[in-house]
Design goal:
Number of strands: 18
Shape: globular
Distance between the termini: 28 Å
Radius of gyration: 23 Å
InterPro entries: ATPase_NBD, Type_II_PanK
CATH architecture of the largest domain: 2-Layer Sandwich
GO biological process, one term: coenzyme A biosynthetic process
Structural class: alpha+beta
Strand content: 15-25%
CATH class of the largest domain: Alpha Beta
CATH topology of the largest domain: Nucleotidyltransferase, domain 5
GO molecular function, one term: pantothenate kinase activity
Largest sheet: 7 strands, mixed
Keywords: ATP-binding, Coenzyme A biosynthesis, Nucleotide-binding
Number of helices: 15
Protein name: Pantothenate kinase
Number of domains: 2
Helix content: 25-40%
Length: about 475
């Protein structure tokens, strides 16, 4: 990893600008706190912002000698003064620019969009445009594009400065997004020129020319940096963001992951390093070290420490081939109705009982899909059972690899993010149960409510702090 050690020179270049970032975390679920308490905590956070025009105080990013490696450090930047920006009315500080903002994470399987609608819009073209943007996705079918309404929140006076919408569509249907942009370019050309779009993911490069053809300016950010930035932004600024699955306090089979109950977790003060496991089309594992305090706040340092090509794209592709399903969500719904034991070969199928020598119960899976070597079983298997076995197989393999990497890197807090985790309670439960079993309770798997949108959210968060060398 690369760190900045010349602290005096760092401080001298930044000048005398000082900024405090107090955040009073609201009590989490189970401690008797109300949502309003958490919202008050959210509004108590202040952070230096940055105007789009930068005025007299400018922010500059210098990558030292163009060094590049898989170990990237967000504190390896030089920053000058950051001017304050405030929300329209009561002086609350927002770290995002004003106006219509879009954070877009275009991955290999899904495109994720975070749309910030300004909190205070007078009736007029901008208000009408915001309504049309919401309607485009609400009127489409789930495969082409849809809004995750459960994740919506309004924060007009706080750090986000508006109404936050979270939308997704399959990358194979990306034409739907460009059709929306084309319509808006024709309907409200002046308003579209004022949009600020921050993009990340491979698609930000692949589809850059199509944005330019529409006359829309896109600012790109590094994918791994936006993941780290998005995780930190959500954890520090959105109350009740992280949770895990734990055994029930009374009754239930503690070895059955389906009996686990959801519990909100305060993770922002957990000892680092953390391991961030981003499960998208493939899987990247990022070691997130202690944040470094600088004049404008805190920045995280990280490096990529592992990964696997077996991820959400694998699940979607194989699942569609095996079952005829059309989408990720449809596969998960099928898996929830299925029984993986009808497909998987268990220890009990081989030994007829527990394998006492290794302490393996008869219900332990010895071979995923192992029963289907029998032609008769293959002819009678249900699509739901196939989906259940597939999601279990992929989840356990990711969990096992993540556990090994966590041990290697000394990480006890493991945070799973990425689109594969979205609305995927099956995998969440299996990850939580696996880490509880393998670590004997020493480490835990954590999840995020906005897990599929950390890249898009990170692109927005980074937009006010740095300008990437790829910005156009």
């Amino acid at each position: 990893m690369q760190h900045v050690n010349d602290g005096k020179a760092f401080a001298a270049q930044r000048g005398a600008a000082k900024s405090n970032c107090p955040f009073k975390n609201g009590e989490m679920e189970g401690n008797g706190s109300s949502r309003s308490d958490s919202q008050d905590a959210l509004n108590g956070f202040e952070m230096r912002g940055l105007d789009e025009e930068f005025d007299d105080a400018r922010l500059k990013l210098y990558r030292r000698n163009g060094r590049r490696s898989r170990s990237r450090s967000l504190d390896d930047i030089r920053i000058e003064m950051l001017p304050r920006t405030s929300s329209p009315s009561c002086g609350r500080k927002s770290f995002l620019p004003e106006g219509m903002l879009f954070g877009i994470d275009i991955g290999g399987t899904l495109a994720k969009i975070v749309f910030r609608e300004p909190g205070f819009l007078a009736q007029g073209p901008k208000t009408e445009q915001a309504q049309r943007l919401r309607q485009y996705f609400s009127n489409s079918d789930g495969r082409v594009g849809s809004e995750d309404e459960r994740l919506y929140f309004s924060d007009p006076l706080g750090v986000f400065g508006g109404k936050m919408h979270f939308l997704k569509l399959e990358t194979s249907s990306i034409d739907f997004l460009f059709e929306i942009l084309r319509k808006e370019r024709q309907t409200s050309p002046h308003e579209v020129t004022q949009w600020k779009i921050y993009a990340t993911g491979g698609g930000s490069f692949k589809y850059e020319a199509r944005f330019k053809d529409l006359g829309i300016k896109v600012r790109k950010s590094d994918e791994m940096e936006t993941i780290v930035s998005g995780v930190l932004c959500a954890i520090e600024n959105i109350p009740d963001e992280c949770f895990t699955w734990v055994p029930p306090e009374f009754g239930g089979d503690v070895d059955d992951d389906m009996t686990l109950v959801r519990q909100t977790i305060q993770v922002e003060k957990a000892r680092k390093p953390w391991l961030v496991v981003n499960v998208g089309s493939g899987v990247s594992m990022l070691k997130l070290d202690e944040q470094m305090t600088v004049d404008h706040g805190k920045v995280g340092t990280y490096k990529r420490v592992g990964g696997t090509p077996v991820g959400g794209g694998t699940f979607l592709a194989l699942g569609c081939l095996l079952t005829g399903a059309k989408s990720h969500q449809e596969l998960l719904e099928m898996a929830a109705k299925g029984n993986a034991k009808a497909v998987d070969k268990l220890v009990g199928d081989i030994y007829g009982e527990d394998y006492h020598g290794l302490g393996l119960s008869a219900h332990t899976v010895a071979s995923s899909f192992g029963k289907l070597v029998n032609a008769d079983l293959r002819n009678n298997v249900s699509m739901e059972d196939l989906a259940a076995s597939l999601v279990q197989m992929i989840s356990w393999n990711i969990a096992h690899l993540a556990r090994l990497v966590a041990c290697q890197e000394g990480a006890r807090t493991i945070i799973f993010t990425g689109s594969f985790m979205h609305n995927n309670e099956i995998s969440q439960r299996k990850f939580a149960a696996a880490f509880r079993y393998w670590s004997n309770g020493d480490s835990q798997a954590l999840f995020m409510r906005h897990e599929g949108y950390v890249g898009a959210l990170g692109a927005l968060a980074m937009s006010t702090l740095i300008r990437q060398e790829h910005t156009h």
